[in-house]
Amino acid sequence: MLLAIDSGNTNTVFAVFDDAGDILGEWRSSSDNYRTADEFGVWLLQLMAISDIDPKSISATIIASVVPANLFDLKTLCRKYFHNEPVVVGDSGVNLGLDVLMDQPEEVGADRLVNAVAAHARYGGPLIVVDFGTATTFDVVDGNGSYCGGVIAPGVNLSLEALHMAAAKLPRVAIGRPERVIGKGTIEAMQSGIYWGYVSLVEGIVGRISEEFGEQMNVIATGGLAPLFVQSTESIESADPELTLRGLHAIYILNK
Fold first, then answer.
1. How far is the CA of 104 from the CAs of 101, 130, 142, 178, in angstroms?
2. Do the two domains 2-88 and 105-246 of this chain adopt the same fold?
3. CA triplet 76, 79, 83: central angle to 5 degrees?
4. pTM for this prediction
5. Residue 20 region by backbone torsions, left for phi larger than 0, else alpha for psi between -120 and 50, else beta
6. Domain at 105-246: CATH architecture
7. For residue 126, what are the contacts with CB-CB under 8 A and spacing of at least 6?
C-alpha cells in the first residue's frame, strides 16, 4: 500500500491507498514547522490503528510539500516508521508526466503540479484547476497535459484574517454563503464581501483565462472550501476534494 503526504501551508494531509488505488484512510494535521518526525509518527500510527491499517503494509511513500521546513521531518517519518525512501515531488529524477511551460519551472509549487497531473488524467484538457487553499490559485493545463501557468490570489481565510487585523472594529467571522448581497450588519457585510467577492473573482479570472487561451475550458475546483463556492457559480463544473491525493498516487505509479 501507498502512503501519500500532501504538506500545504495550513494543513498536512496523509492518505493510504490500497493496491487498487482506493483511499483506505485520510487524516489532516496542522502544518506545524516545529512538529518532529516522532510527533507525526505517534499521531499517524494511532489514527491508522483506529482505521485497522497495519503500518507494516505500507510498502511505499510519496511526498509533495510547499513547506521546506517540514520536508526533513516528513522524510524521516517515512524512513523511521515505514522503512522506505519516499518519492519527493520536485526531486530530480521524479517524472511528473507533464511539461512545465514556465520561465522558471522550479518556482511552481509541488501541489499545483500534482493537481495538474490529476486533473488532466481525470478530466482531460484544456482545463483550469481552482484550488481554495491558503492562497486561491488558478492553474492552466492544455490539451496535451502541459502546465501552462496560472494565477495566485490571497486565500479566503487569509483575506478574512487581514480584514480583522488591519481594521480595529472588524471582528473575526466565519466564511459562509450569505442569503443576500447587501449586509444589514457588520458581520453580514464582511461575509458578503468575502463570499460574493470571491465568486466574482473566480468568474472574472476564469473568463479572462478562457478568453486569453482561446478555447472553452473545463474548470475543476479543489481545496476545503471548494464545495461552498461551487454551489454559487456556473463557472466551475465540479469540486474534487481528493484531487491532490489522486495526483500523488498517479505520480507514484508513473515512477514505480
1. 9, 21, 18, 40
2. yes
3. 160
4. 0.87
5. alpha
6. 2-Layer Sandwich (3.30)
7. 140, 141, 142, 143, 213, 215, 217, 218
Dig out the grid coordinates for 22 from the structure.
Answer: 482506493
Q: Is 55 exposed, middle or buried (0-12, 13-18, 19+ CB in 10 A)?
A: middle
User: Can you read off the three cell numbers belonging to residue 186?
Assistant: 457588520
List the pLDDT tens digit at each of the 256 positions of the chain. Answer: 999 999 988 889 999 999 999 999 999 988 877 789 999 999 999 999 999 999 999 999 999 998 888 999 999 999 999 999 999 998 888 999 999 999 998 889 899 999 999 999 999 989 999 999 889 999 999 999 999 999 999 988 887 788 777 776 777 877 888 888 998 888 888 888 889 999 999 999 999 999 999 988 999 999 888 998 998 999 999 899 999 999 999 999 999 8
Bond preceding residue 126 cis, omega within 30 of 0: yes
**Shortest CA distance to 118 belongs to which of 151, 147, 155?**
147
Which grid cell is 157? 481565510
Sketch the domain layout of the chain as residue ranges. 2-88, 105-246
Residues with catalytic roles: 111
Q: Which three cell numbers stand for residue 237?
A: 463544473
Q: Which CATH number fits domain 2-88: 3.30.420.40, 3.40.50.2300, 3.90.180.10, 2.60.120.260?
A: 3.30.420.40
